[in-house]
Every structure is written in structure tokens, then in C-alpha cells.
Amino acid sequence: MKLYLLYYDVDYGNRGAWNTFYTPVEVFDSAEKRQARIDFIKAQVDEDGEPVGYDFHEVDTVLMTDELAKEWMS
Fold first, then answer.
1. Distance CA 63, CA 33 (A)
2. What local confidence, expressed as pLDDT, does residue 28 receive?
3. What does the DSSP 8-state code read for residue 29?
4. Interatomic CA distance for residues 7 and 57, integer angstroms
5. For residue range 29-61, what is the model confidence (pLDDT) as tens digits?
6. DSSP code per residue over 38-71
7. In Å, how far from its chain's centre is CA 20?
8. Distance (Å, rounded) from C-alpha 5 to C-alpha 11?
9. How many Cα atoms occupy the beta-carbon half-sphere of 58 within 13 Å?
10. 2, exposed or middle or buried, with CB in 10 Å at 0-12, 13-18, 19+?
11. Nearest to 56 by CA among 34, 72, 32
């Protein structure tokens, strides 16, 4: 099974400042669902009605299955 991760935070120009404990991360079972979430987040506005600038980072990862574990161990 493949998981699609999405990390995002307000874009202050420095993704290196992201924090494991405060930077949002969401997990999806399809790239389409993740993209729909990105589109929703991009549509958000601040209290003045201005778009909120976000920095996104996407990661696709495969779970360790029994077959992959056997391959890895051999």
C-alpha cells in the first residue's frame, strides 16, 4: 500500500524552520485526495480576505509489506 503524505505550513520563506511538533502532516490513500486537500488549503483566506501563502511538501511512501521485508532481509 502506498501512502501519500502532505506537510504544509505558512510560507515564511524557510522550510528549514518547520518543526516536527507544530508543522501539520496529513496522510492520504491517494494522490487525488491529497491534491484536493491542497486545493482546499490554497483557497483559504486570512482575516483581511487575502490568500494565505502556504509552503507544501509531498512525500509518497510504500508501507513495508511482508514481501518487501523478505526482499530486504535477503
1. 18
2. 97
3. S
4. 5
5. 999 999 999 999 999 888 898 888 888 889 999
6. HHHHHT-B-TTSPBPPEEEEEEEEE---HHHHHH
7. 13
8. 18
9. 12
10. exposed
11. 34
C-alpha cell at 74: 535477503
Mean residue pLDDT of the chain comes to: 85
Task: Give the C-alpha separation, 59 to 52, whole Å.
Answer: 22
Among candidate residues 34, 37, 33, the one with its CA nearest the CA of residue 59: 34
Gap between the Cα atoms of 32 and 15, Å rounded: 24
16 DSSP 8-state letter: G
Q: What's the chain's length in residues?
A: 74
Q: H or E stretch including 7? A: strand 2-10
Is residue 9 within a helix (H) or strand (E), and if so which, with residue range? strand 2-10
Cell numbers at 2, concatenated: 502506498
DSSP state of 15: G
pTM of full prediction above 0.70? yes
